[in-house]
Amino acid sequence: MARPGTRRRRLLVPALLGCLAVAVALAIAVVWRTDVYDRNIGRITDAVPDEGGRPVDDPGENWLLIGSDMRGESTADKWREGEADADVIMLLHVPEGEARAYVVAISRDSWVDIPGHGRGKLADAYSEGGPKLLTQTVEELGGVRVDHFAAVDFAGFEAMTDALGGVVIDLPYEVYDPTNGWYWEAGENRMDGEEALRFVRERKGLSGSDLDRIERQQVFLRAMAEKAVSEEVRGDPRRLDAFLVAASESVAVDEDTTMAMMRGLMMRLVGIGPEGTVFMMLPASSTGWEGEQNVVYLDGEIVSGVFERVRDGGLMEYITEHGLEHEARSID
Q: Which terminus has fewer CB within 10 Å in the chain: N or C?
């Protein structure tokens, strides 16, 4: 029997690829209109905690990345108290002296200690206290210092998809929404931005409701990632520029992050490449209920081991030993 959370880990990986596709695309801005892209990227004030009582800095870089579907006048304005939602939460770890990058996904439903708020779902930290409280919660969970915070607005993926000239989503079975009359056949479906977002938001014809919808989102994001890094796009200056504009308008970072920092990170990710990027999710020991909330209980022993290796090195060996790495897959 698969361990609890295995299905969620499998579904989340393409979303991580989607976010990294944005990172790779922005890296190409080194020789493009850097100032324009920099102005488009939102800056979030007070996203990273003050120095007092924080974990000791470790070699390398740690970025807390979230994906959200909030709407606002700017990406930095997406968080509004009591309304924001973090659909995807992950820690990007790029260690010193190692030709690898690690993406550690953390279930938004993880039952954790939220500083000053007691126990709750990890996503509650974002909705109750914004980027700063979410960062504090992750730092307390792992004892690992977060260097930078970045948010990706999923609504912006509509413009990004259109800038790419649409994406192709390969479905293993037909999908039909009887309420809206929407239908997608089994096999390859080419979608523009509007149709792609309709596809990932549709839920009426799904047996698993939101879990199935999450699966759709991941398939869409993976397809977009593959298109973004394709030679077809990279070799077309106009299309690449349109995608970079849409991507930069969908990203917000902490106020201390400069374009030079982002460029340095992205160029390093490009050098590492997909083959050197390791994806995993903090494993769950079980799922259960806290009041009326369905929550995920993390495997404390494995979680401690993962974060210890983030701080001290040897993460790849630990991931291999415990079978934590997951490859991107299409929906079943």
A: N
Triad 85, 258, 102: Cα angle to 5° = 60
* Per-residue pLDDT at 329 exceeds 60: no
Residues 171 and 185: beta-carbon distance below 8 Å: yes
**Half-sphere CA count of 146, side-chain side, radius 13 A:** 30
Backbone torsions φ then ψ of 25, nearest 5 degrees = -65, -45
Q: Residues 259-278: pLDDT tens digits?
A: 888 888 877 877 787 678 88
pLDDT of residue 148: 95
Closest CA to 121 of 132, 135, 137: 137
What tokens were used for 287?
């799922």
CB contact at 8 A, 227 and 167: yes
Per-chain mean pLDDT for the chain: 79
Contact 122, 108 (CB under 8 A): yes
Query: In the chain, where does DSSP find H-type helix?
Result: 6-27, 34-40, 122-142, 157-163, 193-201, 210-228, 231-234, 237-248, 259-272, 300-312, 315-321
Q: 6-27 and 237-248 are packed helices; what angle lies between their axes, rounded to 10 degrees?
A: 120
Q: Quick one: CA dihedral 70, 14, 165, 174, positive or negative?
A: negative
Residues with Cβ within 8 Å of residue 320, at least 6 apart in sequence: none
Q: What Rg do the C-alpha atoms of the chain give, in angstroms?
A: 19
Structure tokens at 229: 């890094």
What Å distances lie between residue 218 and 195, 225, 300, CA to CA? 15, 10, 27
In the numeric block, the tokens 């929906």 are attached to 331
